Amino acid sequence: MATKMVTSFRRSLSFPNPPSHNVPKPQKTLHVRSTSLPCRSHPIISQLRDEISELHSWSAAVSSSAWLCDGLRRLKIVHESLDDLLHLPQTRDTLRGGEYSDLIEKLLDDFLRFVDVYGMFQTLVLQLKEEYSAMQIAVRRKDDLKIVAHSKNLNKIAKKIGKLSSNLVSIGKLSIFSPAGESYDEEAELVEIVKDVLKVTVIVSNFLFGGISMSPAFRKQWCVGLSFGRKTKNVRVEGGIREFREINLENLRKKAEEEVKMVSKKMHETEDCILEIENSGERAFRSLINTRVSLLNVLTQ
Predict the structure, then answer these.
(1) What is the phi/psi pair of residue 274, to 5°?
(2) For the packed helices 65-87 and 43-58, what is the interaxial angle rounded to 10 degrees?
(3) What are the distances in angstroms from CA 122 to CA 149, 272, 286?
(4) Are 250 and 216 within 8 A, CB to CB?
(5) Residue 11 above 50 pLDDT?
(6) pLDDT at 3
């Protein structure tokens, strides 16, 4: 009986050895990065998709200052959601992998370009607002020379704003790939959602820059006899922001005092629209900065 006990005892000792050699394999499979990201049903992923879809629907609507500010507000919300996604430990662990270093660097470059462009826009829209305010004074005084001078300045500023779009052409060129041995999964989905965020950011930005630069209110012809009455009623939405197409300064010196007051009132309303766009742009600008900081923290923390 003692011998049998020893035999069974030796058999029980022989079992741990094979499993001990297999321990690293299950640990490795549990550590695959594709399982570390939020799955498709994660609330933040779903929320981002809904917000991006809403922005695409927004882009088909009517062009007005309120519409433009709403687009900037929605864009800010999208970047706040992306920022929340980037703060998830699972997301950070995945993106810290060596195979994603190029991706992070490209994203950092893209967001730096967004930040630079929106910083320039804030400076230009401030100049636009100040020049437009000075224009109002010239209109009230019926000072044709100053009106022409301010109009030329407005035209130059508007053109600079329009050219900002050219800085966004190369943004969003991200490659979707799967590290060796891994299939197209949640990691690829993460890259896709980031690409979608970049795309809608470019879309909203182009509407913002183009809407202002194409508005007749900031073209130099509007103060030298161009009428914005019946001719501009058929202007397409792409031709500028609605409120910036409703001012008629033709033959200002011949207008009665009451008419000049009406023009001044309309210009004051337009100035308020510019201020709203400036404030909405600043909030979107700050959300872009926060997103880039979060991306930078992925590498440094």
Answers:
(1) -60, -40
(2) 160
(3) 23, 16, 11
(4) no
(5) no
(6) 44
Q: Which residue has the tokens 């044709």?
A: 144
Q: Tokens 């397409």 correspond to what residue? A: 236
Give the mean pLDDT of 149-172: 92
The terminus-to-terminus CA distance of the chain in angstroms comes to 63
Name residue 100's amino acid.
Answer: Y
What average pLDDT is seen over the chain? 77
Are 54 and 233 spatial neighbours (Cβ–Cβ below 8 Å)?
A: no
**The predicted structure's pLDDT at residue 89:** 86
Q: Quick one: how many helices (H) and strands (E) in the chain?
A: 10, 0
The C-alpha atoms of residue 218 and residue 162 are separated, in whole angstroms, by 12
Rg (alpha carbons) of the chain, rounded to whole number: 29
- What are the structure tokens assigned to 186, written together? 């949640």
Q: Bigger pLDDT: 248 or 283?
A: 283
Distance, in Å, from the CA atom of 216 to the CA atom of 203, rounded to the nearest integer, reads: 22
Rounded to an integer, the average pLDDT of 131-157 is 89
Across 243-252, average pLDDT: 69
**Average confidence (pLDDT) over 188-192:** 81
Q: Quick one: pLDDT at residue 151?
A: 87
- pTM greater than 0.90 (yes/no): no
Angle at 50 between CA 111 and CA 172, to 5 degrees: 25
For 142, left (φ over 0), alpha (ψ -120 to 50), or beta?
left
Contact between 287 and 111 under an 8 Å Cβ cutoff? The reply is: no
Pair of tokens at residue 260: 């000049």
Q: What is the DSSP letter of 100?
A: G
The sign of the dihedral angle between the CA atoms of 133, 137, 140, 145 is negative
Query: Degrees (nearest 5) of the Cα angle 227, 225, 129?
Result: 80
